[in-house]
Amino acid sequence: MGSRMAKRLIAAGHSVTGYNRTKSKAQWLLDAGMKWADTPRTVAETTDVTLSMVANTEALHAVTGGADGILAGLSAGKIYIDMSTVSPAAVRELAKQAQAKGAQMLDAPVSGSVTTLEEGKLSFMVGGKRETFEKILPVLQAIGPKATHVGSNGLAVSMKIATNLSLAVQMLAFSEGVLLAEKSGIARETAVEVLLSSVIASPMVKYRGPFVLKMPDEAWFDVNMMQKDLLLALEMGRQLDVPLPTTAITNQMLTAARGMGLAEKDFAILFEVLARMAGKK
Q: Are 120 and 132 spatial neighbours (Cβ–Cβ below 8 Å)?
């Protein structure tokens, strides 16, 4: 996602300087005109706006902290935007540290997939000061057309967690419906066709529903990443006294996927987990 976002910024005419732990993975962007920085700090020092997208809270601390981290490169007037799905508390703490240096931070996770991004339909939810959001809006819209300010720092990532739990829950429910139909004697392809033409066909189901027929060669969002988000949701639920029963059972099904050696598959592999449990070959 992050690399494709960088490509859209380059295509929109922005000057982009980038860093990745493995430089070779960024070579296609360098070939497209991106400048290279040896550290995250260098990115923050040499640009007005720094964007990051990493896998989890630990990775966010790694890219922002220390002598070579983003925070070390921030100074008065600069803006830092993190697009990761991480702990809201971690985002709020980073925002405080950025403000102490005279910079501003926004949390701006996205709703959508690689396909959504490539189709130009990605949307952002943004947390932080409204004036900073309005200033940076053209940059975000170069990546995706829709950006919504949801409140103070940490609230956008909270909204993203609330969104992502529904993705996994919907996938599990869809898989249950397909498998029930199939075991009753209906061809799987027919069941998928009917469900994708029915009232239950949300945009996510339309994108991932066909995966129960053929999984992608490369995961759009794998089991480990989705389970990370569900665990963040369950922790929020515990803190806020919000019961999340369907999230809890879906989390257990993702644990089952990992136990079956399917951790690197797209989370749509939930269908395969159910099928195995039902004795389906």
A: no
Q: What is the pLDDT of residues 227-238, one digit of tens each?
A: 999 999 999 999
Helices 223-240 & 155-183, crossing angle to 10 degrees?
120
Identity of the amino acid at 20: N
For residue range 33-84, list pLDDT tens digits in order. Answer: 999 999 999 999 999 999 999 999 999 999 999 999 999 999 999 999 999 9
- Say whether 228 is catalytic: no
Q: Which of 23, 101, 121, 160 is catalytic?
A: 160
Q: ∠ CA(57), CA(220), CA(106), 5° rounding? A: 40
Question: Do residues 236 and 88 touch, judged by C-beta distance below 8 A?
Answer: yes
Q: What are phi and psi of 258, to 5 degrees?
A: -60, -40
Two tokens, residue 143 = 């990546």
Claim: this prediction has a pTM higher than 0.70: yes
Six-digit token pair at 270? 């939930």
Instruction: Give yes or no for a contact between 16 and 33, defined as CB atoms under 8 angstroms apart.
Output: yes
